User: Fold this.
Amino acid sequence: MTVNDAVVKRIATLLKEKNMSQYRLEQESGIQHGSMQCIMNGRNKTVTLSTIIMLAKGFGMSLTEFLDDKIFAIENFDIE
Assistant:
C-alpha cells in the first residue's frame, strides 16, 4: 500500500465515524473540491504533509491523532 492509499482509507474511515460529508471536510480543511477529488480517486500520487495537516484540522484533530491508526503502521507500506 502507498501512503496515499492509507490517507484515502483514513479519510473514508473518519468521514464515516464522524458522520461527516466530504463537502464539509473540504470546507473545514480549506482543501478545494478538485484537490480532494484527486486525493480520493487516487489521481494524486503525492499527498504532502501540509495536506495531511489540513485534513487533520478539518476533522478537528491534531496531526498525531490523524496518523494514530494501524493503517499507518510501517509494515503496511510498499517502500521502494
About this structure: The radius of gyration is 12 Å.
